[in-house]
Structure formats: C-alpha cells, structure tokens
Amino acid sequence: MLLQLNNVLKTFGGIVAINNLSFEIKENQILGLIGPNGAGKTTVFNCITGIYKPDKGSVYFNGKDITGLKPHIISKLGIARTFQNIRLFPSMSVAENIMAGRHAKCRQTWFDSLIRTPKYFRDEKENWLKVKYFIGLLNLSEYTSAIVGSLPYGIQRKIEIARALASEPKLLILDEPAAGLNNKETQELVDLIYQIKDMGITILLIEHDMDMMMSLAEYIIVMNFGEKIAEGIPKDIQSNPQVIEAYLGSE
Amino acid sequence: MEIFLQQIVNGLAIGSIYALVAIGYTMVYGVMKLINFAHGDLVALAAYVGLTVLMQAFGMHITNLWAIILMFVITALFISLFGVVLERLAYRPLRKAPRLSAVVSALGASLAIENGIMLIWGPNIKVFPSNVFPNMRWHISGVVINSTQIAILLLSVILMLALYIFINKTKIGTAIRATAIDQDAAKLMGINVNGIIIAIFALGSFLGSIGGLFIGIYYRELYFQMGWIYGLNAFIAAIIGGIGNIPGAMLGGMLLGIFNVLIAGYVSNGWSEALTFVLLIIILIIKPTGILGERVAEKV
Amino acid sequence: MKKNFVWYGVFFVIAIIYPHFVNPSWVDIGTTFALYSVVALSQDIVLGKAGMFDMGHATFFGIGAYTAAILNTTYNIPIMYTIPIAIALSALFGIIISWPIIHLRGDYLLVATIGFNIIFYQALQNNVFGLTGGPNGIFGIGTPVIFGINIASQKAIYYFAWFILLITMLIIYNIDKSKLGRAFHYLRESEVAAESFGVNKRFYKVLAFALGAGLASLAGVIFAVQYAAVSPETFNFTQSVLFFTIVIVGGPSSIPGILLGTFVMFVVPQFFREFATARYFVFGIAMILTMILRPQGIWPVRFGKLPKYIFKES
C-alpha cells in the first residue's frame, strides 16, 4: 500500500469540501477518482500534495505521515502531479520545462551555480541528458527547443506529464489529463499511462472521460459532495445504482 | 490629557483628507489590481488648480462664498476629467500587459504630472489665502477646535456617506462592486467594464480633488512634490483598512491621520514617516487583509 | 551564443577606450553608469528573475556605501577590507528584511519594501547611533589599495567600477544557466507549479534578496569611493523607483535590456541637463510611451538556448 488517506476532513470557511474520506492505493496500481464536478476530487489531490492541510485525518505515503507537509517536501518524497489547467512555463522551451521536473534531483548548490564549480558542470550534463531521455520517451524530440507557449494543447499535456515523470516519482497524480484531447490523442494518452505503469510507477488519476476511465483504471473511487459514495473494480462501479444516480443525465 | 484630545481632533481632520484620497486608491486597486501612483499627484494638482481658480475669482471681485463654490466646482470637474483621461492614455493600453509595466506607466504619469505642476506654477512654494473657510475657534475643556477642521470633517463625512449609499444602493454602485470581484463574470452579465472603470476613475479623482482642496485650505502651503507623500500615506491607509474596501479606506484614513499626528507630537517629526511604515509592515505581517478585510479579485 | 559574446566584447572595448576621449564630467557619468548597472542587475535578481515586487532596493545600495564610509572614516579600515563586510552585512539585512514579508502578495510586498527604504532613509537622516552623519552625510572617504596600487585617480576608479560590472555580469550569466536561475524563473511564473516539483519557495525567495542585496552593496562601496562622500538623498525612495523602472523598461531578466535601461534612464537625461526644468516632465511621458509601445521592455529576455549535447545522437 503506497498511499493511504484516513478520515480526511477539509473545510473552507465553513463549507465542507471533503468529509471523512478514506481510501488507499496499492503500489503500481492505476487508481481512478471520479465524481461530478464539485465533488472535491481536485481538493483531494491538493490535500495529498500539500497545497492544502487537512483539518482532520491523515495522509500516509510509503509508510510516512505526510499530512500537512509543504508541497516541495512531499514532491521530494516521490509524488509528482499534473494540473487541470496546464501549468507549464510558456516562455521557455520544451526541454527547459521538462528540466523543471529535475529540480529536486539536481545536486548543485546555489554556490556551485554562482561560480561554476566542476560539480555544476557534472550536474548540468547529467540532468540535461535525463531530460533528453524523457523527451525521447514521450516522442517530443522534434519539439525539444520549441517555445512551449506556441505548441498545441495536446503536446502541452504531454510536456506536463514528461515534466512530472522527469522527477522520477513513485506516485504520479494526473488531474484530468484527457481534458481537451481528441480521440487519437486520448488513445496515445492511454498507451502512455500503461507505459508509465510498466515503469513501476503508481498512478492516481481524475478523469471525466468514462470510456477511458473504465478501460484504464484497475480500481475506482467515486466521490460526491465531498464523500466517498462507492469504490470497486470498474465493472461493479458501472452497475452501482448510487453512482448512476450521482451521474444522472451525464454520459 | 488635553494635548492628547487635541491631537485626536487634529488627527481626525487630517484623517478625513487621507480618507478621501485613500478611496480613490482603493477603488482602482479593487477593480484593476493597479496602484495608481499618479493619484497623489492628481490631488496635488487639484490644490494648485483650486488656488488658481480662487485667485482668479477674487481678482474678478467675486464674493467670497461664490468664489469658494466656483473653486470647488471647477476643480472637481477638471480633476475628475483629468483622471478619466489619465486612465485612457496611460492605463487602458496596458490592460493586457504584465502588471509591472502598468506600474511603470503609473510612475511615469506621476513624474509627468508632478513636473508639469512645476513647469506651470514654478518650483516655489505657493500659499493659499488664510481663512478660506470662515475661521472661528471654540475652546472645549482645554481643546481648541477651529471651524475649518469641523468643516473639513463634516464635508468629508457627508461625501463618504454619499459614496457609501451610491456604492451599496444604486445599480452603478452594485456594478462597481461586481466588477471588483470578478471582471470577466461582470462582462458576461452585460456590465460595461470600460464604463465602470471610467466611473471609478472619475469618482476617485473627484474625491481626491476635494481632498486636495482641503489640503490647500487647511495646510495652505503647496509644493509640487507633495503629491507623493499624501499619495503614499493614503495608500497605506487603504491597505490598513483593507484594500478594495471603501469603508476600510475611510477607517484607515482616519486611523492613519490620528496615528500621524500622535507620532509627530510624542515622538519626533523626523521619524514620522518611518514609524508609519513600521505600523504598516506590522499590520501586513499580522493581518495582511487589513482591519475590515480586503475585497479584491483573487485569481486562484 | 558566440554572437552575443562578440557584442559584449565590443561593448567592453568601447568602455575601455571611452575615458580617453571624453571630458572628466563624462568619465564620472561613465563610472556611475557602471555602478548603477550593477545595482539594477542586482535588483533584477529579485524583481526580474524571481518576480518579487521590490521597490526599495536603494536601501542595499546605501548599506554598502554607508558601511564603507563609516568603517573607513570612523574606524580607519582600508576600503578593500570594507568590501566583504559591506556585502555580508547587506546580504544579512536582505535576509532579515525579506524573511517576514516574503510571502506577501505582490503589491503588499512592494509597499513593504518601500517602507524599509523609507525607514533606512530616515535612520540616515536622523544620524542614528551618531554614525551616519545626518543630512550632510559623511565626507573624506578613502580609496581602495590593491597590491600596493592606490586606485585614486578618476580613470582608475572608472576602470575599477567597470571591472565590478564585468564580474556582476558574469555572476548573473552563471545564475541564468543553472539550477538557481531556473528555480527563480519557476517561482516567478507559477509558484504552485514550482512547489509541485520540489522548489523550496522560502529558501529561494530569501536567497534572491540576499544575493540582490550583496551585489548592490558592492556597487555602493565603489560609489562611496567615487564621490569620496555619501549622503542620504542618493539612497532614498526616488532612487529605488529609478532602479525599479530600469529593470522593467529595459527588460526583466535580460542583461542587455538592463544595461540599455540604465543608459536610457540615467545617461540620456544627462544629455538634456540644459533643459533642466522640462527634463523630468518629458521623462515621465517617455516612461508611459515606452511601456505602451514595448510592455515587455526594450530588450526582452529570450529563452530556449540549450546545451549542445542535448541534440547530439547518443
């Protein structure tokens, strides 16, 4: 069991966003989180990654209590994420954006950076070559020096995932990675996620594309109004009356 | 004790002026997230324009009362218009630009207006005639209150009340508040955001111009760099009260006025500005949203 | 890359021969240009790279100048020894000042930095601890002696100042193409994203202030030497506004941009000294126009230069 949420409660000024939520993710599992808009899914992600601190309850990662730790520390422990609205650096090149994911792995100190010690040169080379590896892994080689802001949405999504992978995480959190993608791009995304699983990484994802979710996820948690209303394998979720009711009207 | 009460009275008079100026800052910041650095210089300009109008009127042998009314009306109209033109020329072209570029434009406008004043009226200090408001003094248990202070305080309160009613009870006022919360949503609701911004600049400049005239009437000495100091203090007042929050600007202005006077009285004058900023920094660290809470559009 | 080095080479060659072709008052301007460029580049670390609204940077410039002035005139410490002390002291102040305010929203940070500047200025004016000399400042500051050579003549100080500028440009260049520079940029563009891949917000933001403060103070020491005197006016809020404007008008995080910015904001007005009265009026208008026409700055920064080995077939 890689990640565990225990009775997490998160409120914002009196409004309950997440109520008594508990679930766990097994190592190398692909776990899906679904629910209508406003169910609290992104809030769950933010509680895991440290952007929010739960009011009550705890989050355990790899056996360690990470509840309320700062985001950069949680990141260094091996959790990487993408965002619902892509947060890349539009004025920089693709390679520089993916290099961002290497930040925690770069070992030069600020002093090394300032005066260019041999350690700086070794560190730079090692990490840029890693960036090259991840660019190749996601078939982005032709875009290496392209400025991100000018690239199509589908490519930007891939770059954000590449950035997350570049930090060599144990757990990868994807927030609606298929949003805005066409059918072909979505299929590429599914293949990519299987590829990531083969790398030994555990995946937690939010997705509204039900076809994609049901075929991809090994286990699903369903949320509504901040609470878990169902969990199980895709087949069971699809026939769960409460889930159907929560989604009444939506495909 | 009397000295303390005296300081409070003085502080309230000055505080009203700060409040009038602070409202201009807080409205613009609430909607556009822009610190209008040129606002203080508009206030200074108002004082100079007012003086010119007044002297002209006296020169034309217009009676006291009408001269004063003329001064207020013409100055207020002119400065309100000036504020709208300023927005159109220096800020609107930069709506989509990085925020700091608009800040530099504001600084440029401030520099231009300040030096424009110097070019037109010369670098020497100009003096307002005394007793523009008829001057009477009352002694109440050892505290001296003069009618100028009362007039300023009263007029300011009336204006602020009128503004409060306008903002909270009229359609335009509600539109202003809506635009301050979410410009895009306001647009979708059919609110003419450009028009709202024009209204805000006109309103803020109007109140600022009254503040400027009060500065002339009360302090009487005008120098072309004075916009900076009043502007900075007024902005601090707006932050203390809660930026974007109009009652906050009023409260902040009053508090700052009293604080300023107390410092100058009990500590030395040379540390006055510094201590004002110490107060500000402490408030920013402890309660950055200000006393009454801020009302700004937050882009999360 | 190579093209840029050629331009910089030309730039420095011109700088080297410059003092032999102009009269002394223009040599002075050349020296101050170099020093102001150093301050602007140091401010750029905080404002342009790390994206923090700092409008009180003249404070650190002043800390350097006054540290040298006080140590040299009151305690007879040779100028060269005041340099590391000034840098360390200023960096320390940078940390102390930024620590409590570092997470404030942009405009609040702006006003807080203005506040520290004004507090500093009034402290100088009020002759705090009897050390700062009040409104008249401190006179009779000595000159640096390196390996027995006294850097005392106007030309020598000029070259020393330009040497400092060269060092500063190298440091900035090193920052840009390193983990440090990248971290600043990530924080500037998106704090949330930066934290999500391990950037320690507080550490880098305070570090930016410390580095910016240290460099500014280095320029401050040489500035004190150039005029053999320091006074509070040079380090007040108006000066901070100048440095702030240089960064934004020139182009945040762009070395050529900032050098151009210093030229435009400091040297160009010198040409119009005769029009003393209208000078700043025109200047204010020019600032507005420049921002409207080039909101990204005169010479904006460009990204995308990658090391060659990332393209080679492995």
From TrEMBL, chain A:
Domain ABC transporter, first and last residues per copy: 3-250
Keywords, alphabetical = ATP-binding, Nucleotide-binding, Transport
Database matches in SUPFAM superfamilies: P-loop containing nucleoside triphosphate hydrolases
GO annotations under biological process?
A: D-alanine transmembrane transport; L-alanine transport; L-isoleucine import across plasma membrane; L-valine import across plasma membrane
Taxonomic superkingdom: Bacteria
User: Which one of the record's GO molecular function terms can you name?
Assistant: ATP binding
One Pfam family recorded for the sequence: BCA_ABC_TP_C
What name does this protein carry? ABC transporter ATP-binding protein
